[in-house]
Specification:
This is Ankyrin repeat domain-containing protein. By secondary structure, this protein is mainly α. It has helices at about 1-15, 65-70, 75-90, 95-105, 120-125, 130-135, 150-155, 160-165, 185-190, 195-205, 225-230, 235-245. It has twelve helices and no strands.
Length: about 240
């Protein structure tokens, strides 16, 4: 009797497990693996890591300033890295890279340990496209370099007439005096060579409202006196005419 009961129990167990009494599997009874359609009717969305700001690039037809690109706030370390990389791109006059970095959050007014910013570099080096880019992205035209000089003074010193023209379209202080005691007009004469680009620079400054009678705070010499002593006849003629008006 006991043997019959035991065989009955064994038969029930075999039916439950899908096996025959000789151990063969008769049907799939295992649970579907996690992640399959049987395990869940709603797939879990994949998480997408936020890109590094240094790697941000716009997809075709997508504005770099759209929320999908710039909505994430930058950590201090990321912002410093962006700004320092922008300084390097400015020295290289790499406008494409500079634009990408600015779109990613770099600051055109950030100054390194030598008080150089992308904006000031563009002005002093005559990088007109880069200068336009920085101005259109909030460049501070009143920013000063380590000599307390403005971007206009830097551009005038190098005879970058196109840069001077562009800066004169802003509200930059045309008669600002730097630490050595010179204005943009002074520097265009003292550091110039009297060549056509410096003549054009002086002409632009005079037409823009530069004080032609303002003597240098360094030596008390007027722009006309400097131009005359250096033999820059064309520049002296421009200054003489402006002085007589």
């Amino acid at each position: 009797m006991r043997a019959l009961v035991q065989r009955g129990v064994l038969a029930v167990l075999l039916l439950m497990t899908g096996c025959t009494d000789n151990g063969e599997v008769t049907g799939p009874t295992q649970q579907a693996p996690s992640g399959s359609a049987r395990a869940s009717s709603t797939p879990r969305p994949l998480s997408t890591p936020s890109p590094s700001p240094l790697a941000v690039k716009s997809a075709p037809g997508v504005s770099p300033s759209s929320p999908s690109v710039t909505s994430r706030s930058l950590a201090p370390g990321e912002l410093i890295a962006l700004n320092q990389t922008l300084i390097g791109a400015a020295w290289d006059n790499n406008v494409t890279e500079a634009r990408r970095l600015i779109d990613a959050g770099a600051d055109v007014n950030y100054e390194d340990e030598t008080q150089q910013s992308a904006f000031l570099i563009a002005a002093s080096e005559g990088y007109l496209e880069l200068l336009d880019l920085t101005l259109s992205n909030g460049a501070d035209v009143h920013a000063r370099d380590s000599y307390n000089g403005t971007a206009l003074i830097r551009a005038a010193e190098r005879g970058h007439a196109d840069g001077v023209r562009r800066l004169l379209e802003t509200d930059v202080d045309i008669n600002h005096v730097n630490n050595p005691g010179w204005t943009a007009l002074n520097e265009a004469i003292i550091f110039g060579d009297g060549s056509p680009r410096y003549v054009e620079t002086v002409q632009l400054l005079v037409e823009g409202g530069a004080d032609v009678r303002l003597p240098s705070q360094r030596d008390g010499v007027t722009p006309l006196q400097h131009a005359t002593s250096l033999g820059f006849q064309e520049i002296a003629a421009i200054l003489r005419e402006a002085t007589e008006q």
